Amino acid sequence: IRDRLTRLVAEAAGSTAAMQFDQCDFDGADLSGLDLRRARFTGCSFAEAVFRKTQLAETHWTSCRARQADFEMADLTDARFTACDLNNTGWHRAKLAATHFAEVKLTGAHFHEAQVLGIGFRDSLLAGADLRGMSFRKQTLEQLDLRDADLGGCDFRDAVFEGGSLRDANLKNARFDGADLRSVDLGGLRIAHVSQFFKGAIISHDQAATLIGELGIRVL
Q1: What is the pTM of this model?
Q2: Of residues 69 and 200, which shows the higher confidence score?
Q3: Which of 36, 150, 160, 201 has its CA 20 to 30 A from that of 51?
Q4: Are 81 and 63 a contacting pair, CB within 8 Å?
Q5: Distance separating alpha carbons of residues 205 and 186, to the nearest angstrom
Q6: Are 94 and 113 in contact (CB under 8 A)?
Q7: Where does the pLDDT of residue 54 fall: very low under 50, low under 70, confident under 90, or very high at 90 and above?
Q8: 21 - beta bridge partners?
């Protein structure tokens, strides 16, 4: 697979047209270091594929499956992922500036030390994902399922949550000053967590009543 793709890349060199791949099978392929900038992938499979240091800036991925793929140190600046299965993928030290994920499954994904300035997620599953240290400041977060995610050190100041879940997430050293949490699932939180992590955040009356109920106090 790598040899064929290398030839295609060489043939496309100098062309202004983006490479297009439809319903292709790249499962287990080593695509490290290739220049695939601006490529379009639709309905492709990349299970356990390796993209180490691959040039993937401005690529578009639609309805692709890439479970356990390794994007370590890949350049995905301005890339777009839509309706893809990216469960248990690795993004260690990847360049994800202005990269956007919409309707994507990222359960168990690891973004440790990735460069994420301007990264965006919408209507996506991030349960159990490692998002430590990411900044979502002033972003609108639409339907993000962050159950059991590691959000240690994340910056959610002035962010607006539209649905989604923070149930049982690790919030150590995360900041929520000014964040609007009124529509997000805060299940699993305790009063101690609120005073420690959510100082300055906005929650609803129902959420407040639920938290107080954890102390055995009834709110009428």
Answers
A1: 0.90
A2: 69
A3: 150
A4: no
A5: 13
A6: no
A7: very high
A8: 41
